[in-house]
Amino acid sequence: MTGGPSLRGDHHVHSAFSDDAVSTPAENLAAARAAGLDTIRMVDHVRVSTTYVPDFLAVVRALPAVDGLRVLTGVEAKILDSSGAIDAPPEVLAALGAPDGADRVLLADHQFPGPDGPWSPRVVLERLADGSLTPAGAVETLVTATVRAVHRAGRAQLAHPFSLLPKIGLSEDDVPDDLLDALAAAVVATGTPVEVNEKWRCPGPRVRQRLRAAGVELVASTDAHVADDVGRYAWLRGVEGHV
Ligand SMILES: [Zn+2]
Ligand SMILES: [Zn+2]
């Protein structure tokens, strides 16, 4: 089977510009080279208030060229609410794909995109328990917000899609085919890659196969927070369709 993510790429690698990661971009570059990768996307966490992005991009752009290794950039931001607002500085979003901007924004389901802003998994669980939110309604809101964020960003990548579901007591089995198809249509229309994420082990086989069949570009990612993890795929090696 073809069309799976190439394991010679790692499309989601954090550096110490993220509070919770430890390696420098140079260390991640060396690890990518040692792992024989052909592509690395260097990414760090942002919020609306983040100011370090120009410094991060300058550091990445100053890295020495490595033969056969393509270095891409990005910022990772959560989807804030059901309108698809993105938790990144507006000027960073406006500069995506520009010569002095980051290449893409990685859209993350770190929180549930509620109608009035991000809901923690605990809040979602409470609302599911008291019946003010249904599982089907939660899934529809999550997918619809993601589709809206994809269109708003223009240049996105889906980070660990559906990693939120287990945290709110749901699974990918709760996502109906028509919502997967709506998501696939949005990412295909915008040329948005979708990660198969080693750290979060998602998405699973049904979602991968349906997205792939719709022509979605799947990319491999480790979500490494330390250079030793760059390009290391224990789980993904067992996933069908990788090359
Ligand atoms: Zn994330
Ligand atoms: Zn990440």
UniProtKB/TrEMBL annotation:
This is Polymerase/histidinol phosphatase N-terminal domain-containing protein. Residues 9-81 form the Polymerase/histidinol phosphatase N-terminal domain. Transmembrane segments: none annotated. SMART domains: POLIIIAc. It comes from the Bacteria. Gene3D superfamilies: Metal-dependent hydrolases (3.20.20.140). GO terms for cellular component: cytosol. It comes from Cellulomonas biazotea. GO terms for molecular function: phosphoric ester hydrolase activity; zinc ion binding. InterPro entries: PHP_dom, PHP_phosphatase, Pol/His_phosphatase_N, Pol/histidinol_Pase-like. Pfam families: PHP.
